Amino acid sequence: MTGWLTRFPVRVAIGLVAPALLIVLWQWQTSEHIVTFAPPAAVGTALLDLIRSGDLARDTLATLKRAFTGLAIGVPLGVAVGIAMGIWKPIDRLVGPLLHALRQVPMIGWLPLMGLWFGMGATTELAVVGMSSFFPSMLNSHAGVAQVEKRYIEVGGIFRFSVAQRIRYILLPGAMPLVLTGITQALAFAWIATIGTELLTGANAGLGVAMQLAQVQQRLDIMLVIIGVTAALGFTINQLFRQLRQSLLRWQPSV
Amino acid sequence: MSAHPHAREDKPPQSVQHGALSVRDLDKSFQIGGRPHKVLDGINLDVRPGEFVSIVGASGCGKSTLLRLIVGLDTDYSGELRLDGERIATTSLDRGIIFQDHRLFPWMTLEQNVELALLNTDTPKDRRAKIVADHIALVNLTGFEKAYPHQLSGGMAQRAAIARALVTEPRLLLLDEPLGALDALTRVHVQNELQRIWMAQRSTMVMVTHDVEEALYLGDRVIVMSPNPGRIRRIVDVDLPHPRDRRSPLLHRLKDEILAELTSGADADAADNLVHLPSREPR
Ligand SMILES: Nc1ncnc2c1ncn2[C@@H]1O[C@H](COP(=O)(O)OP(=O)(O)O)[C@@H](O)[C@H]1O
Ligand SMILES: [Mg+2]
């Protein structure tokens, strides 16, 4: 895996080919009027306006705060419950079936119920984002503990590990690759859930709110700016976590 | 010490006192398909303190099962297992084991792996780093302390496993085909190292191997087992001082004898066991 194709600047350049082609296609179709679309230049102007007015910063921060507050609740809870289920069978038997049934309900399906309980506000948004990060964290952490090989647990037995030592030195590190996979999924799910709830609950700020407002005002340029920012932010968060994951798993041969 | 015919002359005899293993009328069965299946039948064996005993036998004759019972990973058996008179009921830091797969924790460096073995010993914390370094040096891995297991070759990983098993100074060390996965050249190298370590440490060792030459080169005695159910068929004394010369005529003669023993039962059945493939008959 060496060679100039994998060098960072080259990789970035190659990654930019497809977006560039998309912009060319977009410019071309703007003159042909196949669907209603703002020309790239108009979108550029809208972006600058949104930056200058501070609207973009306000909406982005509101969305990030929503996403990460939800993650801060859902991920630790999900990892803890998943690991507990993996370590202690009775806990799995007790809450496993319920959780597996509940996770079949799509995130959006919870909105009406939550709305009834908490109103269409911050609590509901937090609950939905939290849940959408809870389930992938929980499922992967559970699987992570369950797939720790018995031969390693036997080594713990040979050296007289206590239950706490077995968890700390064998089960947790052994489960770590899948725990981190779960968190990666949780990040993606929470991001989607945040934008989704913003669209549906009518919060007072956020990227989803801005999208909806743009639709009402028929501001195609703004809509495209927000979509672009949403995509870019989600992508960046995912990339940053990938770096963290790789450094945490440097003991693995294949990462 | 008179019980030990080849006392290594360079060490004071009183340094070997612990590590007497006694196996009495050991039977072991597994439930297979709801029916008991006898794997070990009437095993009787006494291993002297500081002795190196090799075990050879057909695959499936219960060698690994025997070691797992002695180390305490499996406690469901009938008969008696004692180390220095004490009945074996669970695992203990007095008994170590090295498996064919090195079983180093992949998420820890070599150094951390070895040090973790000391977790539940009363070794003072401030002396642990030194002891770990000494044992890493003992298996010639100095310089690789910070390496993760996947960065070590098979031979190096197995040597690291040896260091981890020795660091607790177990009275009895069990080795289950520890060199089975190594190439021939590496194996000879680690065999020499194992012999050197055993001569220096003088703990009791019981090693299972499928390599008769290896069994004879290292063992004071070689236990030959037969399968279905696993029994001790013969015990061969290897009356040669350590370190040994691989070219010794005695080792070669004993090797031929043991190989004959191991294959004699198989030869009788060989004609019956031949599978006839009609389509492959010469025309
Ligand atoms: N956990 C187990 N459950 C059922 N049967 C087992 C188990 N472990 C080993 N056996 C059986 O016991 C016999 C001896 O196995 P083992 O001790 O591994 O043999 P060896 O190490 O001599 O090759 C084999 O027939 C094997 O199938
Ligand atoms: Mg075996």
Give your account of this protein's structure.
The complex is a heterodimer of chains A (255) and B (283). Chain A is mainly alpha-helical and 255 residues long. Chain A has one domain (57-248): MetI-like fold, CATH 1.10.3720. Chain A has helices spanning 8-32, 40-53, 55-87, 89-102, 111-118, 122-146, 150-158, 163-201, 207-216, 220-248. The longest helix of chain A is centred in the last third of the chain and has 39 residues, at 163-201. Chain B is of the alpha/beta class. Chain B has 2 domains: 13-94 and 171-279, P-loop containing nucleotide triphosphate hydrolases (Rossmann fold, 3-Layer(aba) Sandwich), CATH 3.40.50; 106-169, no CATH class. A 6-stranded mixed beta sheet of chain B has the order 6-7-8-3-9-10, sandwiched between helices. In chain B, helix 3 packs across helix 4. The longest helix of chain B is centred in the C-terminal third of the chain and has 25 residues, at 249-273. The model of chain B is unreliable at 1-14 (pLDDT under 50). The A-B interface holds A 151-152, 154-155, 157-162, 165, 169-170, 173-174, 176, 250-253 and B 71-73, 91-93, 96-97, 99, 101, 103, 105-108, 116-117, 119-120, 148, 150, 168. Bound molecules: adenosine-5'-diphosphate and magnesium ion. Residues 63-64 of chain B line the site of magnesium ion.
